Amino acid sequence: MQAESLNQQHAITNRIIFRQYHHSVVAEITSDYATARVFLYGAQVLSFIPNGHNELLFVSQNSFYQAGKAIRGGIPVCWPWFGGHPSEKDKPSHGFARLSQWTVLHSQTENGNVRLLLGLSDTKETRGFWPFSFEATMTITVGKTLQVALMTRNAGTQAFSLTGALHTYFRVSDSEQISIEGLNNTRYMDDVTRRESIQKDGLLRLKGEVDRCYLETTRTCIIDDPEYKRKIKVEKAGSTTTVVWNPGAELATKMQDLGDWEYASMVCVEAANAMDDLIYLNPGQSHELSTRISVL
Protein backbone atom coordinates (compact mmCIF):
# COMPACT_ATOMS: atom_id res chain seq x y z
CA MET A 1 0.00 0.00 0.00
CA GLN A 2 1.25 3.47 -0.85
CA ALA A 3 1.70 6.28 1.68
CA GLU A 4 -1.02 8.40 0.10
CA SER A 5 -3.77 5.82 0.62
CA LEU A 6 -2.48 4.99 4.11
CA ASN A 7 -2.69 8.65 5.07
CA GLN A 8 -6.28 8.78 3.84
CA GLN A 9 -7.24 5.79 5.99
CA HIS A 10 -5.01 5.85 9.05
CA ALA A 11 -3.18 9.18 9.47
CA ILE A 12 -3.98 11.22 12.60
CA THR A 13 -3.32 14.96 12.45
CA ASN A 14 -0.11 15.86 14.28
CA ARG A 15 0.16 12.24 15.50
CA ILE A 16 0.78 9.78 12.64
CA ILE A 17 1.83 10.42 9.07
CA PHE A 18 2.95 7.84 6.50
CA ARG A 19 5.79 8.52 4.08
CA GLN A 20 7.38 6.51 1.29
CA TYR A 21 10.76 5.29 2.51
CA HIS A 22 13.08 3.20 0.36
CA HIS A 23 11.09 0.15 -0.80
CA SER A 24 8.25 0.51 1.71
CA VAL A 25 6.47 3.03 3.93
CA VAL A 26 7.46 4.47 7.30
CA ALA A 27 4.98 5.65 9.94
CA GLU A 28 6.21 8.78 11.74
CA ILE A 29 4.60 8.94 15.18
CA THR A 30 4.42 11.85 17.63
CA SER A 31 2.83 11.39 21.05
CA ASP A 32 2.70 13.78 23.98
CA TYR A 33 5.77 12.04 25.37
CA ALA A 34 7.99 10.82 22.53
CA THR A 35 8.52 10.35 18.80
CA ALA A 36 9.00 7.07 16.93
CA ARG A 37 9.38 5.71 13.41
CA VAL A 38 7.99 2.35 12.32
CA PHE A 39 8.86 0.71 8.99
CA LEU A 40 6.00 -1.33 7.56
CA TYR A 41 8.52 -3.69 6.01
CA GLY A 42 9.11 -6.08 8.88
CA ALA A 43 6.86 -4.11 11.27
CA GLN A 44 10.18 -2.79 12.51
CA VAL A 45 10.51 0.11 14.95
CA LEU A 46 13.48 2.18 13.75
CA SER A 47 13.47 5.04 16.27
CA PHE A 48 12.23 5.93 19.75
CA ILE A 49 13.11 9.33 21.23
CA PRO A 50 11.44 10.23 24.55
CA ASN A 51 10.97 13.95 25.08
CA GLY A 52 14.11 15.47 26.60
CA HIS A 53 16.31 12.51 25.66
CA ASN A 54 18.38 11.34 22.71
CA GLU A 55 17.68 8.34 20.49
CA LEU A 56 17.37 5.05 22.38
CA LEU A 57 17.56 2.68 19.40
CA PHE A 58 20.51 1.91 17.14
CA VAL A 59 20.28 1.49 13.36
CA SER A 60 23.43 0.86 11.34
CA GLN A 61 24.42 3.40 8.71
CA ASN A 62 25.17 0.39 6.49
CA SER A 63 21.73 -1.20 6.80
CA PHE A 64 20.18 -2.70 3.70
CA TYR A 65 16.85 -1.20 2.65
CA GLN A 66 15.66 -3.59 -0.01
CA ALA A 67 13.16 -6.42 -0.33
CA GLY A 68 14.49 -9.73 0.90
CA LYS A 69 17.08 -8.12 3.19
CA ALA A 70 16.81 -7.60 6.94
CA ILE A 71 17.47 -4.17 8.45
CA ARG A 72 20.34 -4.01 10.92
CA GLY A 73 18.93 -2.19 13.93
CA GLY A 74 15.80 -0.94 15.62
CA ILE A 75 13.57 -3.81 16.72
CA PRO A 76 13.60 -6.60 14.14
CA VAL A 77 10.80 -9.15 14.56
CA CYS A 78 12.37 -12.63 14.64
CA TRP A 79 9.47 -15.01 13.92
CA PRO A 80 8.32 -17.81 13.63
CA TRP A 81 11.76 -19.15 14.44
CA PHE A 82 14.74 -17.66 16.24
CA GLY A 83 18.18 -18.09 14.67
CA GLY A 84 18.58 -20.60 11.87
CA HIS A 85 15.66 -22.77 10.83
CA PRO A 86 15.79 -25.92 13.01
CA SER A 87 15.87 -28.33 10.07
CA GLU A 88 16.14 -26.46 6.75
CA LYS A 89 19.22 -24.26 6.64
CA ASP A 90 18.29 -22.65 3.31
CA LYS A 91 15.36 -20.86 4.93
CA PRO A 92 15.96 -17.29 6.15
CA SER A 93 17.66 -16.77 9.50
CA HIS A 94 15.24 -15.54 12.18
CA GLY A 95 12.18 -16.36 10.06
CA PHE A 96 10.24 -14.39 7.47
CA ALA A 97 8.33 -11.78 9.52
CA ARG A 98 11.16 -9.23 9.31
CA LEU A 99 11.28 -9.75 5.52
CA SER A 100 7.53 -9.22 5.01
CA GLN A 101 5.36 -6.22 4.25
CA TRP A 102 2.88 -5.80 7.11
CA THR A 103 -0.58 -4.26 6.79
CA VAL A 104 -1.82 -1.29 8.80
CA LEU A 105 -4.94 -2.42 10.67
CA HIS A 106 -5.66 0.49 12.99
CA SER A 107 -4.29 3.69 14.52
CA GLN A 108 -5.51 5.61 17.55
CA THR A 109 -4.61 8.08 20.28
CA GLU A 110 -5.44 7.71 23.95
CA ASN A 111 -4.33 9.80 26.93
CA GLY A 112 -1.51 11.36 24.92
CA ASN A 113 -0.24 7.97 23.69
CA VAL A 114 -0.31 6.86 20.06
CA ARG A 115 -0.97 3.26 19.07
CA LEU A 116 -0.36 1.60 15.70
CA LEU A 117 -1.60 -1.92 14.94
CA LEU A 118 0.00 -3.91 12.11
CA GLY A 119 -0.95 -7.34 10.81
CA LEU A 120 0.47 -10.29 8.91
CA SER A 121 -1.32 -13.49 7.92
CA ASP A 122 -0.45 -16.59 5.95
CA THR A 123 -0.24 -16.51 2.17
CA LYS A 124 0.96 -18.92 -0.50
CA GLU A 125 4.41 -17.36 -0.11
CA THR A 126 4.56 -17.71 3.70
CA ARG A 127 3.33 -21.31 3.50
CA GLY A 128 6.39 -22.03 1.38
CA PHE A 129 8.46 -21.12 4.45
CA TRP A 130 6.11 -22.36 7.18
CA PRO A 131 3.07 -24.54 6.27
CA PHE A 132 0.60 -23.16 8.81
CA SER A 133 -2.35 -20.76 8.95
CA PHE A 134 -1.74 -17.89 11.35
CA GLU A 135 -2.66 -14.34 12.26
CA ALA A 136 0.13 -12.16 13.66
CA THR A 137 -0.24 -8.60 14.94
CA MET A 138 2.26 -6.03 16.14
CA THR A 139 0.88 -3.43 18.55
CA ILE A 140 3.25 -0.47 18.93
CA THR A 141 2.36 2.08 21.62
CA VAL A 142 4.38 5.29 21.83
CA GLY A 143 4.08 7.12 25.14
CA LYS A 144 6.32 7.65 28.14
CA THR A 145 7.43 4.11 27.34
CA LEU A 146 7.70 2.28 24.04
CA GLN A 147 5.57 -0.85 24.19
CA VAL A 148 5.87 -3.45 21.42
CA ALA A 149 3.69 -6.57 21.49
CA LEU A 150 3.79 -9.43 19.00
CA MET A 151 0.65 -11.59 19.13
CA THR A 152 0.41 -14.91 17.27
CA ARG A 153 -2.88 -16.77 16.80
CA ASN A 154 -3.18 -20.23 15.33
CA ALA A 155 -5.82 -19.65 12.65
CA GLY A 156 -5.69 -23.16 11.21
CA THR A 157 -6.73 -26.68 12.13
CA GLN A 158 -3.24 -27.99 12.87
CA ALA A 159 -1.19 -27.35 16.01
CA PHE A 160 2.20 -25.71 15.61
CA SER A 161 5.19 -24.56 17.64
CA LEU A 162 7.28 -21.43 17.24
CA THR A 163 10.18 -19.45 18.64
CA GLY A 164 11.03 -15.77 18.13
CA ALA A 165 12.32 -12.52 19.57
CA LEU A 166 11.93 -8.77 19.63
CA HIS A 167 15.59 -8.27 18.68
CA THR A 168 16.04 -4.78 20.18
CA TYR A 169 19.21 -2.82 19.33
CA PHE A 170 19.97 -0.12 21.90
CA ARG A 171 22.21 2.85 21.17
CA VAL A 172 25.00 3.18 23.74
CA SER A 173 28.08 5.37 24.12
CA ASP A 174 30.55 2.47 24.31
CA SER A 175 29.48 -1.17 24.55
CA GLU A 176 32.47 -2.06 26.73
CA GLN A 177 31.78 0.75 29.22
CA ILE A 178 28.11 -0.02 29.93
CA SER A 179 26.72 -2.59 32.36
CA ILE A 180 23.53 -4.66 32.30
CA GLU A 181 21.68 -5.42 35.53
CA GLY A 182 19.09 -8.14 36.04
CA LEU A 183 20.82 -11.33 34.89
CA ASN A 184 22.82 -12.33 37.97
CA ASN A 185 22.54 -15.97 39.08
CA THR A 186 20.92 -16.82 35.74
CA ARG A 187 21.85 -19.85 33.65
CA TYR A 188 22.82 -19.06 30.06
CA MET A 189 23.97 -20.75 26.90
CA ASP A 190 27.00 -19.01 25.40
CA ASP A 191 26.93 -19.29 21.61
CA VAL A 192 30.52 -18.02 21.36
CA THR A 193 32.10 -20.63 23.64
CA ARG A 194 29.33 -23.23 23.02
CA ARG A 195 29.12 -23.81 26.77
CA GLU A 196 26.46 -23.43 29.40
CA SER A 197 27.27 -21.26 32.42
CA ILE A 198 25.70 -19.30 35.25
CA GLN A 199 26.34 -15.60 35.55
CA LYS A 200 27.72 -14.99 39.01
CA ASP A 201 28.44 -11.28 38.69
CA GLY A 202 25.70 -8.86 39.63
CA LEU A 203 26.37 -6.81 36.50
CA LEU A 204 27.10 -8.05 32.99
CA ARG A 205 29.91 -6.17 31.27
CA LEU A 206 30.69 -6.81 27.61
CA LYS A 207 34.11 -7.70 26.26
CA GLY A 208 34.58 -8.81 22.67
CA GLU A 209 31.87 -10.85 20.99
CA VAL A 210 28.92 -11.67 23.27
CA ASP A 211 26.08 -13.97 22.23
CA ARG A 212 24.13 -15.39 25.16
CA CYS A 213 20.67 -16.85 25.72
CA TYR A 214 19.75 -16.38 29.38
CA LEU A 215 17.30 -19.11 30.35
CA GLU A 216 14.30 -19.32 32.66
CA THR A 217 14.22 -15.61 33.39
CA THR A 218 11.38 -13.12 33.30
CA ARG A 219 13.32 -10.33 35.02
CA THR A 220 13.63 -6.72 33.93
CA CYS A 221 17.05 -5.58 32.71
CA ILE A 222 18.65 -2.17 33.23
CA ILE A 223 21.30 -0.88 30.80
CA ASP A 224 23.48 1.62 32.68
CA ASP A 225 25.36 3.97 30.35
CA PRO A 226 27.47 6.34 32.48
CA GLU A 227 28.84 8.38 29.56
CA TYR A 228 25.35 9.06 28.19
CA LYS A 229 24.21 9.58 31.79
CA ARG A 230 21.14 7.43 31.38
CA LYS A 231 19.68 4.07 32.35
CA ILE A 232 17.39 2.20 29.97
CA LYS A 233 14.80 -0.08 31.53
CA VAL A 234 13.91 -3.16 29.46
CA GLU A 235 10.80 -5.02 30.65
CA LYS A 236 9.20 -8.02 28.99
CA ALA A 237 6.29 -10.46 29.10
CA GLY A 238 5.47 -13.77 27.41
CA SER A 239 9.16 -14.69 27.49
CA THR A 240 11.44 -16.76 29.70
CA THR A 241 14.55 -16.18 27.57
CA THR A 242 16.62 -12.99 27.41
CA VAL A 243 19.20 -12.68 24.64
CA VAL A 244 22.22 -10.37 24.93
CA TRP A 245 24.27 -9.83 21.78
CA ASN A 246 27.14 -7.69 20.54
CA PRO A 247 29.30 -8.81 17.59
CA GLY A 248 32.55 -7.34 18.89
CA ALA A 249 35.28 -5.87 16.70
CA GLU A 250 36.36 -9.00 14.80
CA LEU A 251 32.91 -10.15 13.69
CA ALA A 252 31.80 -6.58 12.90
CA THR A 253 34.45 -6.27 10.18
CA LYS A 254 32.91 -9.30 8.43
CA MET A 255 29.36 -7.90 8.43
CA GLN A 256 28.43 -5.93 5.31
CA ASP A 257 25.49 -4.20 6.99
CA LEU A 258 27.41 -2.97 10.03
CA GLY A 259 30.21 -0.42 10.07
CA ASP A 260 33.54 -1.72 11.38
CA TRP A 261 33.30 0.38 14.55
CA GLU A 262 29.54 0.47 15.01
CA TYR A 263 29.59 -2.54 17.34
CA ALA A 264 30.78 -0.12 20.04
CA SER A 265 27.61 1.97 19.65
CA MET A 266 25.08 -0.82 20.24
CA VAL A 267 23.95 -3.68 22.42
CA CYS A 268 21.01 -6.03 21.91
CA VAL A 269 18.89 -6.98 24.92
CA GLU A 270 16.01 -9.06 23.62
CA ALA A 271 12.74 -10.47 24.86
CA ALA A 272 12.76 -13.92 23.31
CA ASN A 273 11.18 -17.33 23.05
CA ALA A 274 14.22 -19.44 22.23
CA MET A 275 15.85 -22.79 22.95
CA ASP A 276 13.64 -24.57 25.53
CA ASP A 277 11.23 -21.61 25.61
CA LEU A 278 9.22 -23.12 22.74
CA ILE A 279 5.64 -21.91 22.26
CA TYR A 280 2.98 -24.51 21.35
CA LEU A 281 -0.34 -23.31 19.97
CA ASN A 282 -3.35 -25.49 19.29
CA PRO A 283 -5.97 -24.26 16.79
CA GLY A 284 -7.49 -21.01 18.04
CA GLN A 285 -4.86 -20.44 20.73
CA SER A 286 -2.75 -17.25 20.95
CA HIS A 287 0.52 -16.13 22.49
CA GLU A 288 1.85 -12.61 23.06
CA LEU A 289 5.52 -11.68 23.33
CA SER A 290 6.15 -8.09 24.42
CA THR A 291 8.78 -5.64 25.54
CA ARG A 292 8.51 -2.24 27.19
CA ILE A 293 11.35 0.30 27.03
CA SER A 294 11.84 3.47 29.05
CA VAL A 295 14.49 5.82 30.39
CA LEU A 296 14.95 5.97 34.15
SSE layout and pairings?
Elements: H1 3-10, E1 16-21, E2 24-30, E3 34-39, E4 44-50, E5 77-78, E6 103-110, E7 113-121, H2 124-129, E8 134-142, E9 146-154, E10 160-162, E11 164-166, E12 169-171, E13 179-181, E14 187-190, E15 195-198, E16 203-204, E17 210-215, E18 221-225, E19 230-237, E20 241-246, H3 248-252, E21 266-273, E22 279-281, E23 286-295
Antiparallel strand pairs: 1-2, 2-3, 3-4, 5-11, 6-7, 7-8, 8-9, 9-23, 10-22, 11-21, 12-21, 13-16, 13-18, 14-15, 14-17, 17-20, 18-19, 19-23, 20-21
Largest sheet: number of strands, sense, barrel closure: 9 strands, antiparallel
Uncertain residue segments: none
Number of domains: 1
What top-tier CATH class fits best? Mainly Beta
Indicate the radius of gyration in whole angstroms: 18 Å
Which band does the percent of strand residues land in? Answer: 35-45%
The average pLDDT value, as a whole number, equals 97
